[in-house]
């Protein structure tokens, strides 16, 4: 890792993604993939590459959050369908 | 007596640790209730309530003095409070009940909330809670609380606007066949709904840094006895069973077969 700051950022990102991965479909092996992707980049030294990798991590975090909220939304809509007599 | 000068708003958000939305509910072998040995999380309707409280503060800024969350539940409910604090609440109250105790009934919850509200030195102006819990679907607590307190209520809210200067809240409600707009004088009880087209709001994700920060926020521990409330259930559940299994429909190959089946069922299309 290039600097202390990026090291801390990477660690924080890893912890956050790890926590998110707990609710993922187990057969996908989110934690395994997470670890492998991080390990693949452990020896990066170029600032731009590190930044790119961190941004990709953030992107995955947002994608996963979006998936979770969609899943929850769908579940709730199915559990509480709109009244068939109303217009909505 | 509350002074008539503009006062800062205190918001109370009762939340419930309920069976997680994704869990397949099963009746327990004794047929006395549902299997509770499953994942629990904050009731989704209450998440919407917490989010709404935080958004009200984002809109009104300094006019909101505090957002307090409260839950009545076993020790594990503390995690649910932590999530609400991570979403933006300032402080929490945990009315703890023993792990083995039965879940309190809506009336018990309402009475406890009333006792808690009366204990708040700075008063409570807005109570926002979910319209129902996804594990019991009772949908009674908000209304009962409003009745006990003699406060205005707006249930199934799909849009909330609080006006602290005029001491009113303009609330849009989901009703059969459409929407209804109410203007309620503060203090008010609001229960949050899932809007049919979209959620009242999309509850924010409680990030790990926020969860860590939430650990420092104050959590007051109380018991129902300390509040002078008896929450022993008044209802006895006699039996809980699953709904009858859906009988599959049958497919027909062609129109003749359809007519034959209809005839079998006694539907001839001829006037009786």
From TrEMBL, chain A:
Domain Complex 1 LYR protein: 9-58
Matches recorded under InterPro entries: Complex1_LYR_dom, Complex1_LYR_ETFRF1_LYRM5, ETFRF1
GO CC terms in record: mitochondrion
Source domain of life: Eukaryota
Biological process according to GO: negative regulation of oxidative phosphorylation; respiratory electron transport chain
Family: Belongs to the complex I LYR family.
Protein name: Complex 1 LYR protein domain-containing protein
Classification lineage: Eukaryota, Fungi, Dikarya, Basidiomycota, Agaricomycotina
TrEMBL record, chain B:
Cofactors named for this entry: AMP; FAD
Record GO biological process: amino acid catabolic process; fatty acid beta-oxidation using acyl-CoA dehydrogenase
Location(s), subcellular: Mitochondrion matrix
Free-text cofactor note: Binds 1 AMP per subunit.
Listed GO CC annotations: mitochondrial matrix
InterPro entries linked to this entry: ET-Flavoprotein_bsu_CS (IPR000049), ETF_a/b_N (IPR014730), ETF_b (IPR012255), ETF_beta_N (IPR033948), Rossmann-like_a/b/a_fold (IPR014729)
Chief subcellular location: mitochondrion
PROSITE patterns assigned to the protein according to its UniProt record, in alphabetical order: ETF_BETA (PS01065)
GO molecular function, one term: electron transfer activity
Annotated keywords: Electron transport, Mitochondrion, Transport
Span of domain Electron transfer flavoprotein alpha/beta-subunit N-terminal: 31-231
Similarity comment text for this entry: Belongs to the ETF beta-subunit/FixA family.
Oligomeric and partner information: Heterodimer of an alpha and a beta subunit.
Purpose: The electron transfer flavoprotein serves as a specific electron acceptor for several dehydrogenases, including five acyl-CoA dehydrogenases, glutaryl-CoA and sarcosine dehydrogenase. It transfers the electrons to the main mitochondrial respiratory chain via ETF-ubiquinone oxidoreductase (ETF dehydrogenase).
PANTHER family with a match to the protein in the record: ELECTRON TRANSFER FLAVOPROTEIN BETA-SUBUNIT, ELECTRON TRANSFER FLAVOPROTEIN SUBUNIT BETA
Protein name: Probable electron transfer flavoprotein subunit beta
Species, as recorded: Suillus plorans
């Amino acid at each position: 890792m290039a600097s202390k700051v990026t090291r801390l950022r990477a660690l924080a990102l890893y912890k956050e993604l790890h926590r998110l991965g707990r609710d993922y479909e187990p057969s996908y092996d989110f934690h395994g993939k997470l670890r492998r992707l991080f390990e693949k980049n452990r020896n990066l030294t170029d600032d731009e590459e590190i930044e790119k990798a961190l941004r990709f991590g953030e992107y995955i975090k947002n994608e996963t959050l979006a998936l979770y909220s969609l899943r929850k939304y769908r579940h709730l809509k199915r559990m509480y369908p709109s009244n068939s007599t109303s217009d909505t | 007596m509350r002074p008539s000068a503009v006062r800062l708003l205190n918001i109370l958000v009762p939340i419930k640790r309920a069976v997680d939305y994704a869990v397949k509910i099963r009746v327990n072998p004794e047929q006395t209730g549902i299997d509770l040995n499953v994942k629990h999380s904050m009731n989704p309707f209450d998440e919407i309530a917490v989010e709404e409280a935080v958004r009200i503060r984002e809109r009104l800024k300094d006019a909101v003095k505090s957002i307090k969350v409260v839950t009545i539940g076993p020790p594990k409910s503390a995690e649910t409070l932590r999530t609400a604090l991570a979403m933006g609440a300032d402080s929490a109250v945990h009315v703890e009940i023993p792990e083995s105790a039965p879940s309190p009934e809506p009336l018990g919850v309402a009475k406890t909330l009333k006792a808690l509200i009366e204990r708040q030195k700075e008063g409570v102006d807005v109570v926002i809670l979910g319209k129902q819990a996804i594990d019991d679907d009772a949908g009674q607590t908000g209304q009962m609380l409003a009745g006990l307190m003699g406060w205005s209520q707006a249930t199934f809210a799909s849009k909330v606007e609080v006006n602290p200067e005029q001491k009113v809240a303009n609330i849009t409600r989901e009703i059969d066949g459409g929407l209804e707009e109410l203007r309620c004088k503060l203090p008010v009880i609001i229960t949050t709904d899932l809007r049919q087209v979209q959620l009242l709001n999309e509850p924010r994700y409680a990030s790990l840094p926020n969860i860590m920060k939430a650990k420092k926020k104050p959590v007051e521990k109380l018991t129902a006895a300390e509040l002078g409330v008896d929450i022993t259930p008044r209802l006895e559940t006699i039996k809980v069973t699953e709904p009858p299994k859906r009988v599959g429909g049958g497919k027909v190959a062609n129109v003749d077969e359809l007519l034959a089946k209809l005839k079998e069922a006694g539907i001839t299309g001829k006037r009786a």
